[in-house]
Design goal:
alpha+beta; Beta Polymerase, domain 2; Methane Monooxygenase Hydroxylase, Chain G, domain 1; 7-stranded mixed beta sheet; 7 strands; rod-shaped; CorA_TM1_TM2; membrane
């Protein structure tokens, strides 16, 4: 799918086809015909478009050496997207996001999965997009990607804190599965943010920026936000590793406590069974001729149970 956008009245407006006024092309899950169309129309290397079809594609920058765009340039970053893990819980994966700068002043964004922050981006005013459009759009989208990582990180931290609150009573495996999915998300984040940071750092050396006094401060903000996300990810990953180990130990300990209580209750409940078995024998026994024999047997059994319960509690076994 290809969407063509122009800037009208400080808003991004969708148009049916490509024109000279078109500034932005949003390409999502391109078909073979659309790939050929983009390659032929804008003289793009085929891997600029097809690279995003591989979810494992690494972040990179091509065409950075140019002082002026005489051939298309590519910046490929990793962006986060929420999904459901095989264990059935929320997991954040990372996917490639290609930004292609064409020689006729357009920017093409290409993804193989829906991108939530692009929908919000279209609703925002375009008045903040300065000339040249390509440079400004490049940095604005990189900023949105950096912000989306930190937003997801806050959600992961919230989930981790919630799981910590369940430690006291947990004897099940579902919390372990959730913790595993959080760990996987953080591992993806660490790898993607490290690669993104390397690509963004190369922009400082790029000669593409025609107005560095305008765009380099914005690039600095993007780098700061990306570094913050990477630092938070590394810290949270270490904490989750420690929490996971503690979680496993607590789950085992809670299970041991449950088994201890059940074993102690079994001992207590064995007393009435033994007493019933003894006085149910068809032989001469104490109290056998008394009319109130059941009452005294009941008192004796109850007293023994209470005595055993107190002894078990005193030894912290119940």
């Amino acid at each position: 799918m290809i969407k063509y956008l122009e800037i009208r009245n400080n808003q991004f407006t969708s148009v049916p086809s490509d024109t000279k006024e078109t500034k932005w092309l949003i390409v999502e899950k391109p078909t073979k015909e659309e790939v050929n169309q983009l390659v032929d129309t804008y003289n793009l290397p085929a891997d600029f478009v097809t690279g995003i079809l591989d979810d494992e594609e690494n972040s990179r920058f091509e065409g950075i050496h140019q002082k002026k765009l005489e051939e298309p340039a590519l910046m490929l970053l990793q962006y986060p997207r929420s999904s459901v893990s095989p264990s059935g819980y929320n997991q954040i994966n990372t996917f490639p996001f290609a930004l292609v700068l064409t020689t006729d002043g357009k920017i093409i964004t290409i993804t193989n999965e829906p991108v939530e922050f692009l929908d919000n981006f279209l609703l925002d005013t375009a008045s903040e997009i300065q000339e040249p459009i390509q440079e400004s759009m490049l940095l604005h989208i990189a900023w949105k990607i950096a912000i989306s990582y930190n937003t997801f990180l806050k959600d992961l931290i919230k989930q981790t804190n919630q799981l910590e609150g369940e430690l006291k009573v947990s004897t099940e495996n579902k919390q372990l599965y959730q913790m595993m999915d959080i760990q996987k998300s953080l591992v993806y984040f660490e790898s993607a943010l490290t690669a993104n940071l390397e690509v963004l750092n190369t922009l400082y050396k790029a000669e593409l920026f025609q107005s560095p006094e305008i765009h380099l401060p914005h690039l600095h903000d993007v780098l700061v936000e990306t570094k913050q996300g990477l630092t938070s990810t590394e810290i949270q990953l270490k904490l989750v590793d420690k929490i996971s180990d503690t979680f496993s130990a607590i789950v085992s300990n809670n299970l041991n406590n449950v088994m201890k209580i059940l074993t102690s209750l079994t001992i207590v409940l064995t007393i009435p069974t033994i007493m019933g078995g003894i006085f149910g024998m068809n032989v001469k026994l104490p109290f056998a001729n008394r009319e109130d024999a059941f009452f005294w047997i009941f008192i004796l059994t109850t007293s023994l149970c209470i005595f055993v319960i107190r002894r078990l509690k005193k030894r912290n076994l119940l």
